[in-house]
Every structure is written in C-alpha cells, then in structure tokens.
Amino acid sequence: MGGFSIWHWLIVGILVLLLFGKGRFSDMMGDVAKGIKSFKKGMAEDETAAPPMKQIDGQRPADTAPAPTANPAPTAINDRDPA
In three state form, how does the secondary structure of 46-83 look? Predict the structure, then answer.
C-alpha cells in the first residue's frame, strides 16, 4: 500500500477532465490566477501612501474640536417664584 503509481494519477486526471471538461477546467485556473493578481495589486496599492485630503474653503480642519455653542442651557417653563 505504498504511494500511488503513474497509472493512478493518469486515471484521476482523465476523470477530472471528463467531469469538468477541458475548457471549463482551464477557465477555472485562469480565474484563480486573475484573483491572485488582483489581490497582489490591491495589497501593493495599500502600501503606497494615500494623498493628503483637500480642504474646502470655509471648512475647518478635521482634527479640531467643534466650537462651543453660544446658546444658554434651556430653562424650566415655569420660572415663577412659588411665594
């Protein structure tokens, strides 16, 4: 019960080609290769520095805190003295 011989692998290869067909099998391998290439391209794009964001006129920078509002805190509706 050693390893598989060349005849075993030949029969397995023929069965795979019969099940998937020659064109379909090569299409699947091409799709896998395209996926790997696009993954590598995406990883390479992440390594490059992103360009700084543009600031629109009249817009405050994103890293500053919002200015406090000038409105006083709301008061109770009934401000009369209970006296």
Answer: HHCCCCCCCCCCCCCCCCCCCCCCCCCCCCCCCCCCCC
